[in-house]
Structures are given as C-alpha cells and as structure tokens.
Amino acid sequence: MTTTSLPRLRRTFTVALALLAMIAVGTVTVQSSAHAGTSEGLQCEYGTTSSQAVPTSRTFSLTATTGYISTPDGNTIFMWGYAGPSGTFQLPGPTLCANQGDTVTVSLKNLLGEPVSVVFPGQTGVTADGVPAQPVFDGTNTMTSMVQPAAKGTTVTYSFVASRPGTFLYESGTDVAKQVQMGLYGAMVVRPVNANHEVMADHAYASDDTRFSPGHEYIHLLSEVDPALHQAVERRRAYDPTKYRARYFLINGRSMPDTLAPNNAAWLPNQPYGATVHIQPKTAANPDPALIRYLSVGTDIYPFHPHGNDQLVVARDGFPLVDTGVGQANRSYDKYLIDIGPGQTVDTTLFWTDTEAWSPNNPIPVDLPPLQDQIVGPDTWFSESPYLGYQGDLPPNVTSSNQCGEYYHVAHSHALQQATNYGATFGGMMTLIRIDPPSPNTCPSAP
Predict the structure, then answer these.
(1) Torsions phi, psi of 371, nearest 5?
(2) E-strand stretches of 151-210
(3) What would the pLDDT profile of 141-174 be if each residue is shown by its tens digit?
(4) Can the peptide bond before residue 92 be classed as cis, meaning omega within 30 degrees of 0?
(5) What pLDDT, on the 0 to 100 scale, is given for residue 296?
(6) CB pairs under 8 A, 24+ apart, for 45-50?
(7) Does 5 have pLDDT greater than 80?
(8) Do residues 420 and 427 lie in contact, with contact meaning Cβ atoms separated by under 8 Å?
(9) How many whole angstroms separate alpha carbon 289 and alpha carbon 278?
C-alpha cells in the first residue's frame, strides 16, 4: 500500500496531537519490545493434549466466575468471565487454540448464582456431557438455554471436532443478552493442516493467499459495556433492558489507552490482552503480512477503521474468501474500513509498503515548519522527522515515545461514539499500528 507525502505528514502530526490530548487524561504506555513469547499479539491457551500427534484430543478447563475490570477514566466495573486453568477471572476468556481435526473438550465449572453454558458458533456435532448439545425448555415451553447449562456449583463438559480452520467465538448460550454483556465470551483459533496432517502454523487457512508472518498475529475481540446493567447485577437489582446504553467500548477487554499496553500488564491483572499491531515494511527479507483476527460480541456493527492502509479481507465467519482448491474463485478484497457485525468474525492480512522510500537523500516535497511553529507537548510520538527510521531534534524537557523513528497509525471504530470512554473522546475501541523501520535498525528490540 502507499500514501502520498502530504497526507502521511498530516497523519503523523494528527496522531501526535491526538496523543497529547489523551495524555492529558491518563498515562500512555506502548510495548516497545518485539513479539517475544506473549508480550504482544496472539496469546494462545492450548489446553492439555492426549498426544503430540496431529490431530489429537485437546482439553480446556473454564470457570464461570466474577471479577472486576478497570477503565482508563478510573472506573471499576463488575464483570462475569470465563477463567482459564488457574481459575482467576479474566476478560475476555482465554483464547483457545487448536488444530484442524482435533477433538476439543471444554469443561465448564459454574461458580455463578445462575445456570450458564458455552456455545461454539461455527462448530458442528457439539455434545454436552456425552449427548447432543440442544436447546433446553422450561415447563411453559420457553427456551431457557441454547445448550445444556451448568447449574450453580456444577460442571458440564462440551466436546466437538474442530473440523475446519478459522477464527471463531465462544460465548454463553444462556440468557445471552445478559450473560454475554456481563463478559462470558472469548475467542477460539483453529489452525489448518495439510494433506500430511502437518500444522500450517503460518497460514490462516489452507491457501498460500492466507500465509502470514507467525510473529505478527493479532486478535481484536470487540465488545461493549453498559455499566448500569453491571451495577444492577452486582447489587442484585432489576434492570430495564429497554434502557440499555453502552458507555464503554473495548478491544480485548480494554479501552484506549490501555489497549496499547503489553499482554499481561501488571496494572491490568484481569485484562491480559493488548491490541497494538506491530509490523515492519514489506521487503524481500520480510515478505509476509500480519494477520488480524476481528471478532464481535457487541450489539451493533463496529466499523473498524485502520488508518494509513487497506487490509485484505481473506475470510468471514471462518469461511475463507481465497482459493483453497482447484477451480475456486478468489473473493478476497481490500477494505479501508472493516465492518464487523454482532457475532461475526473477519480475518484480514496487513502489509505496509514504503513505496516512496523517503529519506534525507530522497526528501519529501515539503519542509517541516521550525519547532517554534509546531505544537510539541511533554510527550510525543512524532520524532520531528518524517522519515522512517530517522529522528530529529526535540525541544528540551520533551520525552520521546518515538524510540527509533517508527510510524504510528491510529486504528479505531469509525462510529465515533465507540471511540470514547463514557463520552470522553480518544478512548474506547481504539489502538495503534506501529511500523518499525526494516531490520537492522536502532529499535530497542525489533519485531
């Protein structure tokens, strides 16, 4: 992809100015290290396996429990959530990862005061405690759950074969409007295998068009919170659903600027997943794109808008849009705004190409204004140089968050009320795409 010189320069100044406004209400921290282990990007829970063979039997343990999340404006919100093997509350639930063909078993223990369950949209042949998963009805023939739930203090075990690769949700199938809003949801990733039963860890689907750089795989699980509902549940009071109004909008259980913090940030103990996308330009040494897996458990369409680049939409709801066999058409398409509807998943790949290759030896056709004509705050993500990998001089007492001349593009919901924290702008469903200069570079730790 490419941008022209003046728009790119304007965007750089826009990000710097917007971040200054954000810093006025809270401290911003960006993970500057590479994707090492689970510091950024997809963090998988692989469960326990019966063997190292492919496919295998893979078992996960979830616990429906209570806890709290924090928001950047200082609020604390009571939540429900699916805890992982440790039993500690987290939002969202752990990202369950399996391989195509694996037999997946999920054991759900319920510590809440009402029946809860798990449904797996996109999966077939699901069983609950060994019998087909099916709706449950009360004495008036009213459906009370989409699948057999676990009563308070009990456990139910769901099982299915992950027959196709893709990005999928898992969420409560009981009193859905309440329980999913309260936080009973998570993401599941199923990786493809080839004809020899070898895992294609660098492919989203069984197609070369979905190859990606394994160190640059990201989950953006989009959700929303109406704090009035959560307060009513915490205080065991009635809630009028006709007055529902979302006030917080989350990516991976966090609102901007917390979305920029690394995975497992100590100050967000119950919100383990960050959302910063961290890439380098496409080069001969770095030919593969990043993969971004979008999911939504919200009540509205989220028009997610990454600045500075199109993304290639390669799949929707776990169905690839690219060639996966002889004679199949390629229906992937470039999109500058990714619409993710309630309950949907969308897979995209992202390149960033330094088409103009600007540098001091190939200067942009405009001059930067002198420092006295720029707005430079106490903390800036603009290095005072428009060139990737270069840094200019900053005024005294200015802290630079731009460590190696990298670029930043905002990525956010384009329904602007969703880019707020209880109405305060430049928050909510928003994160950044960080573009480091090609390796070798002067970054503290390049991806």
Answers:
(1) -55, -35
(2) 155-161, 166-171, 185-191
(3) 999 999 999 999 999 999 999 999 999 999 999 9
(4) yes
(5) 98
(6) 45/84, 45/85, 45/94, 45/95, 45/96, 45/97, 46/97, 46/98, 47/96, 47/98, 47/104
(7) no
(8) yes
(9) 11
Burial class (CB in 10 A: 0-12, 13-18, 19+), 267: exposed
* pLDDT tens per residue, range 409-423: 999 999 999 999 999
Residues 211-234 as b/e (b if ≥16 CB within 10 A, e otherwise) read bbbebbbbbbbbbbbbbebbebbe
Q: Which of 433, 82, 435, 74 is nearest to 272 (CA)?
A: 82
pLDDT of residue 323: 75
Comparing 34 with 433, the larger pLDDT belongs to: 433
**Whole-angstrom Cα distance, residue 381 to residue 160?**
47
Nearest to residue 437, comparing CAs of 394, 400, 396, 402? 402
Count CB neighbours of 97 within 10 A.
Answer: 20
At 181-210, the pLDDT tens digits run 999 999 999 999 999 999 999 999 998 889
Would strands 302-306 and 338-340 be described as parallel, antiparallel, or unpaired? Answer: antiparallel
CB neighbour class for 183 (10 Å; exposed up to 12, middle 13-18, buried from 19):
buried
Secondary structure E strands in 199-275 = 217-225, 248-251
Residue 27, pLDDT score:
34
Alpha helices in 82-211 (DSSP H): 176-182
Burial class (CB in 10 A: 0-12, 13-18, 19+), 444: exposed
The first and second tokens of residue 376, run together, are: 């430079």
Residues of the chain with pLDDT > 90, as a percent, come to 77
Residues 297-323: b if buried by 16+ CB within 10 A, e if exposed: bbebebebbbbbbbbbbbbbbbebbbb
Inter-CA distances, 393 with 32, 116, 294, 369, 427, Å? 21, 57, 38, 13, 29
d(CA 438, CA 447): 9
pLDDT digits (tens, 9 = 90+) for 111-149: 999 999 999 999 999 999 999 999 999 999 999 999 999
Backbone angles phi, psi at 323, to 5 degrees: -65, 125
Asked if residue 303 lies in contact with residue 338, where contact means CB atoms within 8 angstroms, the answer is yes
402-415: string of b/e by CB count within 10 Å (b at 16+)? Answer: bbbbbbbbbbbbeb
Structure tokens at 422: 């209880």
Count the helices and strands in the chain (H runs, E runs): 3, 29
Total residues belonging to the chain: 447
